[in-house]
Amino acid sequence: MLPDFPKSRKELSEKLRLHLRLRVQEKSPWAALGREYTQHEGRAFSYEQIIDESKRVVETGFEEMIVPIRVEFKDIPDLVGEALFRKLDEMADSIAEQTSRMGQRRMNEATQLAGTAIDAGGQPFTQELFLQSESARDWEFNHLTGQQEGVYIAHPQTAERMHKLWQEWKKDSAFMKRVAELKARKYEEWRDRESRRKLVD
Amino acid sequence: VIERVVENWLTSANERQYQIPFCQVLSSEGETVIYASPHGALEQGKDVITIGADKVPCAYQLKAGRITLTGWQAIRGEIDELVELPITHPSVPTRKLHRPYLVTNGAVSDTVLNRIESTNRVWKKYNPKPLRLIQSGELVTRFVRAHGSFLPRETKDFSSFLELIVKGGSGPFDKERFSSFLESIVPIRPSTHVLPRDVGRAAASAVLLTSYIVQGCEREQNHWAVFEAWIVTASYILAAASKHRTPVKWWVRSFDLCELAAVRALESLCQECVENHTLFTQGDPFTDGAFYPVRITILAGTLSALSLYHRLRSEKWEHEFFVQELLLAYTKRIQVWGESAAPYLTMAALELEQHGAHARSEQLIGQLVATIVALNGSKGRGLPNPYYEPEGAVRLISGMEPTNPELFTGNSYALEPLIEFLARRLARGMLTHFWERITRIHFAGFQPAEEWEWFRWRAESGSLDHRMPNTPQSWAALLHSAENAPSDVPSLLGDRPSFMPFFGLVFPHRFSVGFLRSLERAIQQHS
User: Is B448 in CB contact (< 8 Å) with chain A?
Assistant: First the structure.
């Protein structure tokens, strides 16, 4: 074989993989927010979902992600520095897109099943729709501060529209009163759920 | 090449080191090994006693190196005992004459050969069967023959074998690599049926290959590594036997030899601890502090497992109280490096109970539960899962693996069995205290798809299942479930309770609800 340096190349490869992973997390909120889990053996896994206060076991397996890469021999000598990171970024774009699609699909399946999915049917986003969707899901609060916890995931254009709408809705005292009432109810529900985390007779 | 490997290994081994593989060779040749002196000490000149294929008992005395006339004169008394004194063993009828053998991994000088020939005439009046000699050349031939066709064939397997042999023996044993190598020897890959005889031959070959591979660890007196190697080999024998439903008689001798070798390694570790005057510190004082608590945890777990092994075999063990003292004095030094520490702490807790230290035992497990819920129930990296061995976990939590992004929060493999441990001891107060934090962690458990894959280092098929703790959890229901019969433990493991403590330590990712229930039940039956 030609002279080579496998040990150092392995180390470099690990560093590049880490870089790629972080870039994917930057580009896909699903990759950044989802719980990561490394499975060391076997090919299947299962987890539980809570549907109407009862548990449902979801048995599943791995899904393959494919990122086609084409590198010409003539390009390899120059695949260092910025050129290398550009190539990694291309890969990160593709992985992030696939991760988001998969995350969205899994979330849709789960929320449809749990009855928490609201389909606006292409209609504009309204106060009623907002209250309906917020009402359908469980809210989480910070134990120390009591602040509501959670993240909204939306397309950048939708996010911008929602932000503008919210600035308008904030001036609507009747609407904000309904939001406050919803929050109080959700807080009570959360407290109730939290109080069930105990050993009883 | 294998001849050279065997020859090199044999010339560097002492009589204690080649005793077990020699037993394997005898067994492969059709003899039934009924006794192998456990501590290497001579028993009436007999290191190994067998019943030959022709039903004649045989007694072997093992020596290392070249035997010259001076050496012969020094061992003459032992040889007289070997030849003249009848075998006293329940499996050998009294007064049945035996065939005596003197075995050496070196050569015997011509003068000694003459002496043996002439002395055989004198011994004849006590034992008409003459002393026979087995020297290195014959040993090598017989060892190679015992391997049959179960040797590494592919270049990569042979290269892995040689690398395992030449690897330095002072660090933790590379179980992953060794397992991968064993999978090229032990027939677990083919889906077609393998004959029982071939499972037996492969097991015998695996025992011999393990002996060659652990020589570096034996040279360094790295007893922990030697112990782990033999338990991995024993597990792969069980894997093959389970996969092909091989009757016990074909593989049990090889399995028993692995277990004996593992026990001997732990006995040596215990002896080293008994004689230790440095509070178990070792090497460079500037770096030992980082690893000292890990060493203490390993010692507590392995020595407790050895004590439990003797209990489960209803054997009295001379160091039982030394282990008790060590546990009482050093449990405060224990460190949970990751979830692979759970079996070590559990063995220590189970052994403490045998000495009446119930509160200490529950406190130990309680502390482990507290650590898991604190680290895996909050933000951060969490406690490395049981797939991380002690050194790997220490490296990870110390920031020595900057490119490994694996996170462990939100799940735990060991939590559920530990909760059941406490529930069976009616530690309701402790569990009530922890339950709120327990509910923030999912119970993880891997279930191999087929029973035989339990004994593989990594199963190919199977499911990693996550369950949420109940909110609320009924104490009565928890207690009822904790006292249920073990359900998911392979019968080959459940039928060998004394092997279980060792298996749990070496395969920490198999430490499950069923495993712990089964082990505790066995201990209860033998207490």
Answer: yes
Supply the DSSP string of B185-242, one letter for each residue.
Answer: TSS-S-SS---HHHHHHHHHHHHHHHHHHTHHHHHTT-HHHHHHHHHHHHHHHHHHHH
Which residue from B255, B253, B223 is spatially nearest to B237, judged by alpha carbons?
B255
What is the structure's pLDDT at B451? 95
CA angle B174, B232, B208 (to 5 degrees): 95
Quick check: A50 and B468 CB within 8 A? yes
How far apart (Å, rounded) are the C-alpha atoms in residues A13 and A115?
A: 44
CB neighbour class for A162 (10 Å; exposed up to 12, middle 13-18, buried from 19): middle
Q: CA B226 to CA B219: how far, in whole Å?
A: 10
Find all residues with CB under 8 Å of B167, minimum gap 6, and list them: B174, B216
The alpha-carbon gap from A40 to the nearest alpha carbon of chain B, in Å, equals: 7
Task: Please give the Cα distance from B178 to B166 (Å, whole number).
Answer: 13
What confidence tier does A52 reach under pLDDT thresholds 50, 70, 90? Answer: confident
- What 3-state class would DSSP assign to B167? coil
- The predicted model gives B260-273 an average pLDDT of 96
CB B343 within 8 A of CB B508: yes
Three-state secondary structure call for residue B67:
strand
> Distance of alpha carbon B196 from its chain centroid, rounded?
24
Say whether the ipTM exceeds 0.90: no
Chain centroid to CA A114? 18
Token pair 């209250």 in the structure block, residue: A131
If you search the block for the tokens 């070997």, which residue do you land on? B82
Q: Quote the CA–CA distance of B527 and B519 in Å, as a whole number.
A: 12
| Residue numbers in A near B396 (CB within 8 A) | none
For B218-248, write each residue's pLDDT tens digit: 999 999 999 999 999 999 999 999 999 999 9
Across the interface, do B466 and A14 touch by the CB < 8 Å criterion?
Answer: no
